[in-house]
Amino acid sequence: MKKVLLAVFAVTLVTATLQAQGIRLGAKVGTNLNKVSGQSFSDGFDLAYHVGGFLEIDFNKKWGIQPEVLWSQTATKRSSFNTIYASEINPLNNQQKIKLDYLSIPVLFRYNVGGILTLNLGPQFGILLNQDKTLLQNGESAFKSGDFSMVAGGQLNFKVLRIYGRYNIGLQNINDIDNKDKWTNQQIQLGLGLRF
């Protein structure tokens, strides 16, 4: 019982200290509208999702940073992949949908426009956690293990609720087969966050 009370006290103390220093912790969940640009993939956006946590660290009333850790899924469909990469494709694989799971780490600058609106801008680093191993013969990697992108968006701040929308543009070629076709991620994220 003493350990439980001590743990509750420690959590309460840490939470009070974080709030006193202008640091807020939260969790978020939302949808991704994804597109991998390049001749090999279809032009439309496909639906996926993300989930993770965030910190809001305010330096003053206007400026701050918002680091996050997200598990984010990218979904896309092949289009002319078979034509461009005919020799690399497994002829038995007819799968058109591709799903990539990333550990995304955005580090966003925060600018508080008013009491309710915050604008976000900054880099995002992505680490590929898994990929469609049936895409190429012998499970050969098609996608690079990392991605670098820029993020811009806005967030509505209520007492404990956050509603956000942002656009991520990939700056790095994620094609790990060859240089025939440049692939870059594009993503629109919409979601909800809860501040603890």
Layout of secondary structure:
Blueprint: H1 2-20, E1 23-37, E2 46-58, E3 63-77, H2 81-84, E4 97-112, E5 117-130, E6 146-157, E7 161-170, E8 184-195
Antiparallel strand pairs: 1-2, 1-8, 2-3, 3-4, 4-5, 5-6, 6-7, 7-8
Keywords: Signal
InterPro entries: Beta-barrel_OMP_2, OMP/PagP_B-barrel
Signal peptide: 1-20
Give an overview in words:
The chain has a single domain, classed as Porin (Beta Barrel). It is 12% helix and 55% strand. The two termini are 25 Å apart. Residues 87-94 and 135-140 have low confidence and may be disordered. An eight-stranded antiparallel barrel has the order 1-2-3-4-5-6-7-8. The chain is mainly β and 196 residues long. The chain has two helices and eight strands, in the order H-E-E-E-H-E-E-E-E-E. InterPro entries: Beta-barrel_OMP_2, OMP/PagP_B-barrel. Residues 1-20 form the signal peptide. Residues 19-174 form the Outer membrane protein beta-barrel domain. It comes from Sediminibacterium goheungense. Keywords: Signal.
Radius of gyration: 20 Å
What is the count of DSSP helices, taking H or I runs of 4+ residues? 2
What is the strand arrangement across the widest sheet? 1-2-3-4-5-6-7-8
Number of domains: 1
What level of helicity do the residues show? 10-25%
Provide a concise account of the structure shown.
Residues 1-20 form the signal peptide. By secondary structure, the chain is mostly beta strands. It is 12% helix and 55% strand.
